[in-house]
Amino acid sequence: MSKKIAVIPGDGIGPEVIAEGAPVLEQLGFELTHFGWGANKWLSEGIGLPPDALKNLSDFDAIYFGALGDPRIPDMAHGREILLGLRTGLDLYANMRPIQLLNNKLTCLKNKTCDDINFIIFRENTQDIYGGHGSASNKNTPQETTIDESRHTYAGVARIITQAFECAQKSVTLGHKSNAIKFGGALWQRVFNEIAPKYPKIKAKQLYIDTMAMEFVRAPEQFEIVVTSNLFGDILTDLGAGITGGLGLAASANIHPGRIGLFEPVHGSAPDIAGQNKANPMAAFLSAAMLLDFLKLFEPAKKLREAVKQAIERNICTPDLGGQKTTQEVGSFIRAQL
Ligand SMILES: NC(=O)c1ccc[n+]([C@@H]2O[C@H](COP(=O)([O-])OP(=O)(O)OC[C@H]3O[C@@H](n4cnc5c(N)ncnc54)[C@H](O)[C@@H]3O)[C@@H](O)[C@H]2O)c1
Is 234 an active-site residue? Predict the structure, then answer.
């Protein structure tokens, strides 16, 4: 392993939280190279993802990513080009988002504990409605009609479902909408039914996506691994964050087994709190822990998670978790635990 990490801090609170997590990787001997892709570059040079970006990134072991989004670019054109460009360009088809309660006091669910809320969502990351294909006719008239194409391929669905079963020990639950989404919904259900029997020791379950949303809140203990499409996963993972303490704690990994992985907090650039030293850096630390797991550095990853738990336990937290500490104070405390 060359021990090289590409760091893309991005916009808003992205650079603030990445500045806290990145030193942990440096202390472990990684060489970090920063890439200033984001709103400022887009506005000043018209460049989102530079043409040689994907080739250059092939030299790295992993990518550590902050967040994109800037009120000066309301249509998020740069964000789509950079983040979706990386996810699809590097074919990072598995977006893994742990829904793990780190402290009982953090959940809004009555009578649920850390033992009850501990599962992972596998969100398909390269297909679905995010491809930008479609049309708008009669624009800016009362007759305006829009079409956004939601594209799913057999191979794309099969590989994320297989990845979910490969990582499961007890159960995989498919979230789908085959009762209303005629073609794509049927494909997801059929492929799941084909793959599940290859893993006889893993319980295979299916829920309509609306029911699944309710079950996240009613009985989250029933889930170990959830697999679903890109759009549904996008929404459900924020619900997952909501029952485990909020976006300031939600981490994610974008992977393609055997290739480079991209690790990022689930949250966006949070313009409402950017520049105020208020952003919770814990999701960035927990994303760094996922990066370390990916590189098989299990012990440092475990210690990093423990350090985050310590900070929560001792209320060394930013205002989103009811604390009064700054981003930098929380970051310093977590690093000091290591
Ligand atoms: N992966 C990404 O880069 C990504 C993801 C989501 C949204 N976005 C973009 O980010 C911008 C803002 O979007 P949004 O407001 O819908 O979502 P957001 O995640 O940025 O913020 C939602 C709410 O959660 C709070 N929040 C988020 N992260 C936090 C943290 N670490 N600590 C404390 N509070 C935190 C924010 O203050 C805000 O009130 C938009 O441009 C959007 O397109 C980017």
Answer: yes
CATH class of 1-92+256-338: alpha beta
**Dist. CA 321–CA 262, nearest whole Å:** 26
What 3-state class would DSSP assign to 20?
Answer: helix
Is 210 a residue of the active site?
yes
| pLDDT at residue 88, as a whole number | 87
What CATH number has the domain spanning 94-134+148-249? 3.40.718.10
In the set 130, 278, 293, 320, the catalytic residue is: 130
Q: What average pLDDT does the structure give for the chain?
A: 96
Give tens-digit pLDDT for 203-246.
Answer: 999 999 999 999 999 999 999 999 999 999 999 999 999 999 99
Question: How far is 316 from 322, CA to CA, in rounded Å?
Answer: 10
Give the pLDDT band (50/70/90) at residue 67.
very high
CA of 137 to the centre of ligand 1 (A): 31
Domain boundaries for CATH 3.40.718.10 within the chain: 1-92+256-338, 94-134+148-249
- In whole angstroms, what is the distance from residue 160 CA to residue 227 CA? 8
Ligand 1 pocket mutation, candidates 231, 247, 264, 321, criterion most atoms within 8 A of CB: 247
